[in-house]
Structure formats: structure tokens, C-alpha cells
């Protein structure tokens, strides 16, 4: 019976690889329960992690999620997070409240507000360093070049749907993803946009705009980028990776070998090698990219 089961697992794995363009390069690094309220969790590396939650609750870990300590933060509910380095991170959420830490999550300082009240709250962040970054809700996009002391609202591309993910890789270059899985690139700081469509027919990707990110996108440079998003399938939900190496002209897809709970939120590290998944049922699961450079 054991040999039959192993054969079934192998055949199933081969079948999944046939369904998708390639087999996933991800594997589970750790899975830990969480005993505090969380809307979104993220890890910068396998050691440094931050969770944000309701009523401004923020916790940080310096040992890979084994222990969590409460940070000092005074904001409304949190729905967006960007971890810039081991010391520096920024979060956003309800009421337009935005705050930054420079001590790994221990204390948080309020920045200039951006966004509105839920359901129009800010929930997306992408920073290339502590000074330069994008901030967004589903309907608004802003840019800062002074660490959030001021925000300049950018005009969205014509015809864009609800924003589902954002990524910035230089002070003038970035990409938006909408809930129809169209991508919009700018190479001049948002003055003009070039749009394209990702071939997603048959993948059954989730097109909902969620309160905290359930889709993540990172471009390492103008050519190389990945998107990870949910694909509901009956009572289970899979994760699909979409990747490009030619600036979005063509895209490959693969299924990540894990099923997640409904309502899970996702965070992808800046180097795109660590994926953090949070759900009330499963706690925090960290996936690492195999053979990451």
C-alpha cells in the first residue's frame, strides 16, 4: 500500500507539472502558530519578521517567528507592509495612517497620511530604500522621495481596474497589476503608462480586491519579475506563480506546491526569495525559493 501511495504522489506531481508551464521552485521553510491578531505577516529574511493587525497591533520577531514581541505603534488597523531591510519597515492602513520603524519594529513613527477609511484604505507598499517608494489603495497611487514626509499622488493609467499589486524597482520605474491581470508599466515616474495582458485563461485566478494583499508582485529589475496569486479550486485554494524575464512581453506560470486557507494574506520579500503566508487557521508559513541566488 505504501508503494502505491508513493506512486500516486509522484504521478500527481507530474500531472500538475503538465498542467502548468513549469514546476515550482518553492518549498516550505517553516510553519509556526501565532497567538496575536494579524492581518498581514512578512519576513525580510529567515530571521527578521513583522506582523501588522487590527487596532494598530504590530509585533516583531528576531528569531524566525519562534518568539514575537509587541512593537510600540499608535495607528488604526493595519493592512499593508513593506520591510525595506532588517531595521527599516513601513506599514499603512485604515484612516490613511502610515508609520515607519528604523529599529526592526520595536517603535514606529507616524508619517504623513495617505489613503482613506476602509474599504478604501491603503494596503500596498513598495520601497526601493527608506526614502523612495510607492503607496496605494485599490483606487489611489502615491510616490514619496523623502521617506513619507510628503506624498505625490500619481495619475492612474486609463482603463485600469482595481489595483491588486504594485512594484517599484527604481525611482522612476514600476508596475501596477489590476484585478483583470493587466499590467501597467511606467518608466518616467508615472507620467505615462504602457499596458499589457498576462495570459491567464484556464488558471481560475482570484480577481477579488482583498483588505490586505492576497496577491504579491516583485520586479527585481525592468526585465525580471514575478507575481504570486490565489487560484480557488472548489474547497481548496492553490498558489500560482507568474514570471517574466523579458519585461512582461511573455509570461510563464507554475503552481506552488501548497494549498492555503481561504482568506490568507501574502508577503514577498524584496529579493523575491521568501514568501510569507498568513491565515488564522495555519498561522505563518514561510516558503523559500530553492537554489536562490
Features:
293 residues; mainly beta; Methylamine Dehydrogenase, Chain H; four-stranded antiparallel β-sheet; 6% helix; disordered N terminus
Write the layout of secondary structure elements.
Elements: H1 2-19, E1 22-23, E2 26-32, E3 40-43, E4 49-52, E5 58-61, E6 69-70, E7 78-83, E8 89-93, E9 98-101, E10 109-110, E11 124-127, E12 133-136, E13 141-144, E14 152-153, E15 163-168, E16 174-178, E17 182-186, E18 194-197, E19 216-219, E20 225-233, E21 236-244, E22 252-260, E23 265-268, E24 274-279, E25 283-289
Parallel strand pairs: 1-22
Antiparallel strand pairs: 2-25, 3-4, 4-5, 5-6, 7-8, 8-9, 9-10, 11-12, 12-13, 13-14, 15-16, 16-17, 17-18, 19-20, 20-21, 21-22, 23-24, 24-25
Description:
With 293 residues, the chain is mainly beta. It has one domain (2-289): YVTN repeat-like/Quinoprotein amine dehydrogenase (Methylamine Dehydrogenase, Chain H), CATH 2.130.10.10. Helix content is 6%, strand content 42%. It has one helix and 25 strands. The protein has a five-stranded mixed beta sheet, with helices on one face. The chain is globular.
Q: In total, how many beta strands?
A: 25
Largest sheet data: 5 strands, mixed
Query: Based on the structure given, which CATH architecture is correct?
Result: 7 Propeller
Tally of DSSP helical segments: 1
Poorly predicted segments = 1-23
Q: What is the class in the CATH system? A: Mainly Beta
CATH superfamily: YVTN repeat-like/Quinoprotein amine dehydrogenase
Strand order of the largest sheet: 1-22-21-20-19
What string, H for helix and E for strand, traces the elements in order? HEEEEEEEEEEEEEEEEEEEEEEEEE
Number of domains: 1
Mean pLDDT over the residues: 91
How much of the sequence lies in strands comes to 35-45%
Amino acid at each position: 500500500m505504501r508503494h502505491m501511495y508513493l506512486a500516486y504522489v509522484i504521478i500527481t506531481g507530474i500531472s500538475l507539472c503538465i498542467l502548468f508551464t513549469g514546476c515550482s521552485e518553492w518549498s516550505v521553510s517553516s510553519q509556526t502558530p501565532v497567538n496575536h491578531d494579524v492581518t498581514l505577516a512578512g519576513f525580510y529574511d529567515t530571521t527578521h519578521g513583522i506582523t501588522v493587525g487590527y487596532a494598530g497591533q504590530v509585533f516583531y520577531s528576531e528569531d524566525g517567528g519562534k518568539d514575537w514581541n509587541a512593537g510600540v505603534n499608535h495607528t488604526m488597523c493595519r493592512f499593508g507592509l513593506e520591510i525595506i531591510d532588517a531595521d527599516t519597515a513601513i506599514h499603512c492602513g485604515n484612516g490613511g495612517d502610515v508609520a515607519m520603524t528604523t529599529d526592526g519594529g520595536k517603535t514606529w513613527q507616524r508619517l504623513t497620511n495617505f489613503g482613506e477609511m476602509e474599504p478604501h484604505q491603503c494596503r500596498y507598499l513598495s520601497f526601493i530604500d527608506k526614502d523612495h517608494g510607492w503607496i496605494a489603495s485599490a483606487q489611489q497611487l502615491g510616490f514619496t522621495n523623502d521617506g513619507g514626509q510628503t506624498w505625490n499622488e500619481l495619475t492612474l493609467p486609463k482603463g485600469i481596474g482595481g489595483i491588486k499589486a504594485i512594484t517599484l524597482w527604481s525611482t522612476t520605474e514600476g508596475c501596477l497589476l489590476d484585478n483583470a491581470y493587466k499590467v501597467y508599466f511606467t518608466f518616467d515616474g508615472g507620467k505615462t503608462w504602457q499596458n499589457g495582458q498576462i495570459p491567464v485563461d484556464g488558471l481560475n485566478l482570484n480577481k477579488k480586491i482583498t483588505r490586505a494583499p492576497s496577491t504579491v508582485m516583485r520586479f527585481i529589475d525592468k526585465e525580471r519579475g514575478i507575481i504570486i496569486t490565489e487560484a480557488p479550486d472548489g474547497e481548496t485554494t492553490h498558489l500560482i506563480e507568474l514570471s517574466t524575464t523579458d519585461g512582461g512581453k511573455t509570461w510563464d506560470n507554475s503552481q506552488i506546491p501548497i494549498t492555503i486557507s481561504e482568506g490568507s494574506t501574502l508577503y514577498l520579500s524584496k529579493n523575491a526569495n521568501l514568501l510569507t503566508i498568513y491565515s488564522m487557521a495555519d498561522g505563518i508559513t514561510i516558503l523559500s525559493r530553492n537554489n536562490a541566488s
